[in-house]
Backbone:
């Protein structure tokens, strides 16, 4: 079926602009596309953490890496005009729920106005044919129920981050209706879609207040990790899974335009929706019991207890589905951080995981 395997020929020399290329997902995406010979321009602030995958894996090598703020429309437009991207994948964001409680204004300005600016720059650049806006599973109005959210469920968000992602979805929808409408597609020729993925895990993440990085930091410092919500169930997925979905969707948008220009969920199978405590226990098993954990007794702001995506649409219409089960994803993560702690070549190691992933069949 078309869409099951990434089409390397499609990506060769394709001009792609990635915002957020210095972040965790952006670094993996840049390495993946670079391995296909894509002509990449990255537009981001500096890497958000230290250490970070962007520097460790030398991601800037052979890509055009522009340091810039998506809130600066003038600069963003200049970069679009200069490099004439055909495809835009917008991932830059203030990406952390807890940080959004401390910095709500910054979160909204980056995640909402930043999205407006990226779509506006795309609108004013004739070369753009596909724009994919990355939001989050948290964009939905969370009813804390057991069912997965579908693409046509209402947007919402309890905290500033989640709500900013719901807003980014509304912005995307309004831009599509107003300037890139599916009915006028033959005239404007631009397909605009959004993608909502769940809790992403993988090697090379050092994000603050994220479970796997918190655990890896604790191991490296030989101290216990504080666990906030052990019973909270999350749709865990290896970072390569949603990226695979994004790339599959972009190819469809390029070939079939407006038919696919809407919102898409890319979540894991039901078996990968596990409580935080399950992840801690299984990572500890893989590390021969070396993870010590303790309950986080601090006052913590509200975080969703249950959140799941319904991904029937991507399965049926894109032919996309997850390839890695959660146990294997955790093994890959442990291998990645082990290689890192042994001063391995992390570009080569990350690329080898990408290749392994490409060679896997869907589960
Ligand atoms: N990691 C997850 O579990 C997850 C889950 C769902 C959705 N997402 C979304 O996926 C995207 C990428 O996530 P990530 O985990 O790689 O995040 P990250 O925090 O690692 O990276 C964020 C990137 O955005 C850039 N950035 C932030 N503010 C910017 C600004 N004002 N101007 C320009 N660049 C800016 C950073 O420099 C960095 O390159 C984000 O939109 C995030 O909300 C992530």
Residues:
């Amino acid at each position: 079926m078309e869409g099951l395997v990434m089409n390397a020929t499609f990506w060769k020399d394709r001009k792609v602009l990635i915002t957020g290329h210095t972040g965790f997902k952006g670094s993996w995406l840049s390495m993946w596309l670079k391995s296909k010979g894509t002509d990449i321009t990255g537009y981001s602030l500096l890497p958000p953490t230290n250490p970070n995958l962007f520097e460790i894996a030398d991601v800037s090598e052979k890509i055009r890496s522009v340091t810039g703020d998506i809130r600066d429309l003038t600069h963003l437009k200049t970069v679009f005009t200069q490099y004439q991207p055909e495809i835009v994948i917008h991932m830059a964001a203030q990406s952390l729920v807890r940080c959004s409680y401390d910095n709500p204004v910054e979160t909204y300005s980056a995640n909402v106005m930043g999205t407006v600016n990226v779509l506006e720059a795309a609108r004013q650049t004739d070369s753009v044919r596909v724009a994919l806006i990355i939001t989050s599973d948290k964009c939905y109005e969370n009813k804390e129920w057991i069912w997965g959210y579908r693409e046509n469920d209402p947007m919402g968000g309890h905290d500033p981050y989640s709500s900013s992602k719901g807003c980014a979805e509304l912005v995307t929808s309004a831009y599509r209706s107003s300037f890139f409408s599916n009915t006028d597609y033959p005239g404007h020729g631009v397909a605009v879609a959004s993608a909502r993925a769940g809790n992403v895990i993988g090697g090379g993440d050092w994000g603050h207040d994220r479970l796997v990085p918190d655990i890896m930091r604790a191991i490296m410092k030989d101290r216990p990790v504080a666990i906030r919500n052990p019973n909270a169930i999350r749709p865990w997925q290896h970072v390569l899974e949603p990226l695979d979905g994004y790339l599959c969707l972009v190819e469809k948008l390029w070939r079939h335009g407006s038919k696919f220009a809407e919102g898409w969920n890319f979540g894991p199978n039901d078996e990968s929706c596990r409580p935080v405590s399950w992840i801690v226990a299984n990572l500890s098993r893989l590390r021969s019991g070396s993870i010590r954990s303790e309950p986080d007794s601090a006052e913590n702001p509200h975080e969703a207890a249950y959140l799941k995506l319904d991904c029937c649409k991507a399965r049926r219409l894109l032919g996309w589905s997850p390839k890695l089960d959660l146990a294997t994803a955790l093994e890959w993560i442990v291998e990645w951080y082990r290689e890192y702690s042994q001063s391995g070549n992390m570009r080569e190691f990350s690329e080898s995981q990408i290749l392994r992933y490409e060679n896997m069949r869907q589960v």
Remarks:
- The two ends are 15 Å apart (CA to CA).
- Residues 100 and 160 are 5 Å apart (CA to CA).
- The chain has one domain: 9-358.
- The mean pLDDT is 93.
